[in-house]
Design goal:
single chain, about 290 residues, alpha+beta, Ubiquitin Conjugating Enzyme, Ribosomal Protein S5, domain 2, globular
């Protein structure tokens, strides 16, 4: 088994729960349970993984409750795996995330089509209400809220990093106010059980007012002493504004010591780069210098 596959197995089980990806009893064969305890699939990895994609052999167990759900899950996962795989990069986390998103979209579409249409005649026009009272409809709580409060965060995720059995991943998103940053953290934890069960969710943000005269910056260690301030310092060095970062860690039972701060900053920086937030001067620093003759 390659080191990349070993780390990926640990990361998947740390994030999605134990026994999500388990050996199937044959060399490099695994059983993968899809998100939401849906179908489980049989996968086989080659010795060359991640240079070659894993083979999805078939359904190990079909999710109950819906006829044909197992076959649908199999087809959908094969499709997303083919779309996210890049030679040389591990792909299961991206495939699982894309699978969950695509499945949610399909099920939401099915529910919308299944809802009965309420006849418009059941709602009398306003001019037919002649009781002298104001009959204008009260705005719903959704339309009454600012768009910034209801729109979902535009998260960019880092690559998963496993170090001595601890798993790290970072989320970054643009923000315009401290209240929005705090709300985004709450939405992330409320919408995804995996991150609620993380050992630590360390956060930092820097926000510059519209006039540029008022600035905000804050951080939270979430039990990982000094980690939030290290993230904030990284953002200061990178001169990042109007952005927030959340680094999640699932503790693997082995203490990393001071090295954990380098790992935390590494996944945060990776997410900033993937989101296109790194300045050109930072990118130039990453390019190796040519040696003179």
């Amino acid at each position: 088994m390659s080191e990349e596959l070993r780390d990926e197995v640990e990361a998947i089980n740390s994030i999605y729960g134990d026994d999500t990806l388990v050996p199937a009893g044959e060399p490099l064969a695994y059983i993968l349970t899809l998100p939401g305890k849906r179908s489980s699939l049989r996968l086989c990895f080659s010795e060359a993984y991640p240079s070659e994609p894993p083979a999805v052999l078939g359904t190990h167990h079909s999710s109950g409750g819906r006829k044909g759900a197992g076959a649908r899950d199999l087809v959908l996962f094969r499709d997303v795996l083919g779309s996210v795989f890049v030679p040389g990069a591990v792909c299961l986390f991206d495939a699982l995330e894309d699978f969950a998103r695509r499945l949610e979209e399909e099920e939401g579409h099915d529910e919308t089509e299944a809802q009965p249409q309420v006849p418009t005649a059941a709602q009398p026009p306003r001019h037919e209400q002649d009781d002298g009272q104001n009959t204008a409809e009260e705005p719903s709580s959704q339309t009454d809220m600012p768009a910034s409060d209801t729109s979902p965060p535009q998260w960019t995720l880092s690559e998963i990093l496993v170090d001595t059995k601890s798993t790290f991943i970072a989320h970054v998103a643009p923000v315009t106010s401290p209240a929005q940053a705090r709300q985004y953290v709450q939405q992330l934890l409320a919408s995804d059980r995996r991150f609620r069960t993380a050992t630590h969710n360390m956060t930092a943000w820097r926000i510059r007012g519209a006039d540029g005269l008022v600035t905000y910056q804050d951080c939270d260690d979430d039990g990982e002493t000094a980690a939030g301030s290290r993230l904030l310092h990284l953002m200061q060095l990178m001169d990042l504004w109007d952005v927030m970062v959340v680094v999640s860690r699932w503790y693997g039972g082995v203490k990393l010591g001071p090295r954990r701060f380098a790992v935390i900053n590494a996944v945060a920086r990776d997410a900033f780069v993937r989101a296109g937030m790194v300045h050109d001067k930072d990118k130039d620093k990453e390019k190796p210098k040519k040696k003179g003759r």
